[in-house]
Design brief:
By secondary structure, this protein is of the alpha+beta class. Helices cover 31% and strands 23% of the residues. The chain has helices spanning 6-12, 59-62, 114-119, 128-150, 209-219, 255-276, 278-292, 304-313, 321-329, 332-335, 351-362, 417-427, 435-439, 455-463; strands at residues 18-30, 35-40, 48-52, 70-79, 87-98, 154-155, 161-162, 174-175, 202-204, 221-229, 242-251, 317-320, 366-372, 393-401, 405-413, 448-454. Belongs to the class-II aminoacyl-tRNA synthetase family.
Length: 483
């Protein structure tokens, strides 16, 4: 299975064993008595030190061993006399796979800003920060699949190219093979998509939910985990044009079942990271503390691992949208007009409102339910009339996290054909476009629920990173499609 990796060598620490390491140089320093080369292959946060004697290798070879160079080092694992490591490699031979000219290589041993590193996304995984983030991202993705597999869900691959807009937002990337300069046109002068590859307009998906529901109405419990796309001209720390979504859909689940699953799921994957990414989380916690040391104590974040354990160990607060609005209307920020956005029943809550509920009022994650029908999607099940709310509500739920706001959005889906068709007309969707979705309500319809979790927001929360562009290897956002 290839060469033994540094994380395996450090775990075994078998002094006296011969080793062969293939890795990149982090640093090199020379003294009168020895040459020290710090190596890392990405398998762990920790480097391994290779030590050579003066004169052991030609000067022409040593000149090429610089930060960023790629080497194969053979030698023997010995006890380290220096501080910071238990073992090191006594070098016997070295092969240089690739050099990195210090005049050109941008990742020299010094602190680099996150903004600069975004400009060299092809190299930033070689830094401690981004290698830690990517290892945690992997662990979280593995935990997602393990959780659903162990709980009887089937992984469903939903299409990337679609003709439907699950959210009704219309902010979609078009997929076409037509000539952009001179596309064919119909008799009215409009672009004739019948001549296109699929014979109709097609787009990159914004969600796998609708197709996921089809799977749930046959397999009972499914989940999707794949890329989704939004053509929003949004330049915030919370939005990407390409991101990954986890979307379970479950037959015979009501809203309460949906909330129970969402809470259990997100706690599981965070706990998995706490158990399996100890070194990387500790490194990112120290990094966050260093970044915030100039802030007043009251403005600093909770230590990263403490925050994660707090989420895992405490039940989420559950309340209705109507109850949340009353709390917000009675809050000091609202009364003192410190909220940027107005609060009243019927408005779509903004991030500042969500974070107030989580971070100031309840001081723990919150699940809001039963939102106004007018601000939610057509597929959400309409609640029975109630005196508690001034207008019709739907069985929606949003899970709100500190520092993030909404991390999960979901609902019980409308299973009644007539009610769903009425909602489709109400929001202006052509029923002929989603005839297949409507038809599932005609043939053996069943109560069902589901939710969506933006994977990058989860990674952002677990790593403590402030910008979502730093938790995906190659971020896509307006005016940026490099790499």
């Amino acid at each position: 299975m290839g060469p033994i990796q540094i994380n395996q060598i450090l775990k075994s620490a078998e002094v006296g064993q011969p080793v062969e390491i293939k890795a990149w140089v982090r640093t090199k320093r020379e003294s009168k008595n020895a040459i020290f080369i710090s190596l890392n292959d990405g398998s762990t946060l920790h480097n391994i030190q290779a030590v050579a004697e003066p004169g052991q290798f030609p000067e022409s070879t040593l000149r090429l061993i610089t930060t960023g160079a790629c080497l194969k080092v053979t030698g023997t694992l010995v006890e380290s006399l220096g501080s910071g490591q238990a073992v090191e490699v006594k070098m016997q031979d070295v092969l240089i796979y690739g050099t990195a000219d210090p005049e050109d290589y941008p990742l020299q041993p010094k602190k680099h800003s996150l903004e600069f590193l975004r400009e060299i996304a092809h190299l930033r995984p070689r830094t401690n920060t981004f290698s830690a983030i990517l290892r945690i991202r992997h662990a979280l993705a593995f935990a997602v699949h393990k959780y659903y597999n162990d709980n009887g869900f089937f992984y469903l691959h939903t299409p990337i190219i679609t003709a439907s807009d699950a959210e009704g937002a219309g902010e979609m990337f078009r997929v076409t093979t037509l000539d952009a300069g001179e596309p064919p046109r119909d008799e009215t002068g409009k672009v004739d998509y019948k001549e296109d590859f699929f014979g109709r307009e097609a787009n990159l998906t914004v969600s796998g939910q609708l197709e996921g529901e089809l799977g749930a109405l046959a397999l009972s419990k499914i989940y999707t985990f794949g890329p989704t796309f939004r053509a929003e001209n949004s330049n915030t720390t919370r939005h990407l044009a390409e991101f990954w979504m986890i979307e379970p859909e479950m037959a015979f689940f009501d809203l309460n079942d949906n909330m129970d699953l969402a809470e259990d799921f997100v706690k599981y994957v965070i706990r998995y990271a706490l158990d399996n990414c100890v070194d990387d989380l500790e490194f990112l916690e120290k990094r966050q503390a260093e970044e915030e040391k100039s802030k007043p104590q009251a403005e600093r974040s909770m230590p990263l691992t403490e925050k994660l354990r707090f989420v895992v160990d405490n039940p989420f607060e559950r309340l209705t949208y109507t109850e949340a609005i009353k709390i917000l209307e009675n809050s000091k920020p609202h009364k003192q007009k410190k909220f940027q956005y107005h609060v009243e029943w019927g408005v779509d809550l903004q991030s500042e409102h969500e974070r107030y509920l989580v971070e100031k009022h309840f001081k723990k994650p919150v699940i809001l339910t039963n939102y106004p029908r007018s601000i939610k999607s057509f597929y959400m099940k309409v609640d029975e009339a109630s005196d508690a709310a001034p207008a019709p509500t739907v069985r929606a739920m949003d899970v709100l996290f500190p520092g993030i706001g909404e991390i999960i959005g979901g609902s019980q889906r409308e299973e009644n054909y007539d009610v769903l068709l009425e909602r489709v007309h109400e929001v202006g969707i052509d029923p002929d476009i989603i005839w297949w979705y409507l038809e599932t309500r005609k043939f053996g319809t069943a109560p069902h629920s589901g939710f969506g979790l933006g994977f990058e927001r989860l990674v952002q929360f677990v790593t403590g990173m402030g910008n979502i562009r730093d938790v995906i290897p190659f971020p896509r956002y307006p005016k940026s499609a490099e790499f």
